[in-house]
Amino acid sequence: MKRGTQTKRTTIYDLAELAGTSASAVSAVLNGNWKKRRISSQLAERITRLAEEQGYALNMQASVLRRDRSKIIGMIVPKYDNRYFGSIVEQFEAMARERGLFPIVTCTRRDPALEVEAARAMLSHRVDCLIATGATDPDRIVELCAAAGVRTVNLDLPGSRAPSVISDNFGGALELTRRVLANCKKEYGEMTPLLFIGGRGTDHNTSERIRGFRAAHAEAGVVVDESLVLACGYAPEKAETAMRQLAEKTGTLPRGMFVNSTISLEGVMRWIRRSGHYTDRMPMLGCFDWDPFVAMLGDHIEMVRQDVPGMLDAVFEIIDSGNSDLKVVQIPPVVETIG
């Protein structure tokens, strides 16, 4: 049998010969560095056209040479597995397309190394702007983007080197704690300290929620012991472990809880069901997150719904205006009773 002849793959040297220029000039054009090399736009246009005609495997830079902006906008998110971040991604993509932008989104799993890797990949695709959502080190991302001349806006967690849009975590936590304390008083006839569980004590959002949690207790004249503030991380397993250890130490857990995300709530409910600790009745619950399925856990559960449309409106207002003031925009969340 005769083997089919394989078509020779076009190289930059072939393109250089066709364009009547050097291979280094072709490489600079295809890598997006042609302006720095002072290559004319006419030559860049010719090389790009030839590359397309010859079926050369263009990278993203080569595809945007004919316009000043790529119209690509990037976003990194820490998680996909809850409604909050999922809603951010969905609405970000819709709002970007409404503006004629092409959105690229990637999940970094709250890993600083993955955040940097993702930012570099976005820059290689010549994004016009990068939205750093819930980044553990947003200033590092801004540093990388600034070196490439790319704007950055922080979302969900603030940074010090770019504009930030976040929820009013203190105000939301203050109101949520007030409601759970009131529910405890109504149910049990007295206000007793709540348990705070979930989140990272080192990040801005959790520290502000703890501050609101404490302020509501102080307002009600209720003293909170340090042992009842468990900023153990967001993973369900960490919440479950923290509750087990506290129960082993104290024997009795509070009758009300402030849970710092639906992810942590998963671990809380798993521990309650496995331990049999609350055999007579479920504790009064408040969660700084929102999911309608939580209604299945019982009646009168308080939840904070973060205003994702409002936050993204503020993000795009910053982008559209070109404003680079290092301000932090706080969007009030909504506290809702589920069930």
Automatic annotation (TrEMBL):
Q: Which InterPro entries match?
A: HTH_LacI, Lambda_DNA-bd_dom_sf, Peripla_BP_I, SBP_2_dom
> What molecular functions are annotated in GO for this chain?
DNA binding
* SUPFAM superfamilies per the UniProt record, alphabetical: lambda repressor-like DNA-binding domains, Periplasmic binding protein-like I
Where would one find the signal peptide in this protein? none
Q: Which of UniProt's keywords are assigned here?
A: DNA-binding, Transcription, Transcription regulation
Q: Which domain of life, per UniProt?
A: Bacteria
Quote the CDD domains the UniProt record gives: PBP1_FruR (cd06274)
> What's one Pfam family the UniProt record gives for this protein?
LacI
Keyword Aminoacyl-tRNA synthetase in record = no
- Gene3D superfamilies in alphabetical order: 3.40.50.2300, lambda repressor-like DNA-binding domains (1.10.260.40)
Q: Which ranges carry the HTH lacI-type domain? A: 10-67
What is the protein's given name? LacI family DNA-binding transcriptional regulator
Q: Which organism is it from?
A: Mycoplana ramosa (Mycoplana bullata)
Lineage at the top is: Bacteria, Pseudomonadati, Pseudomonadota, Alphaproteobacteria, Hyphomicrobiales
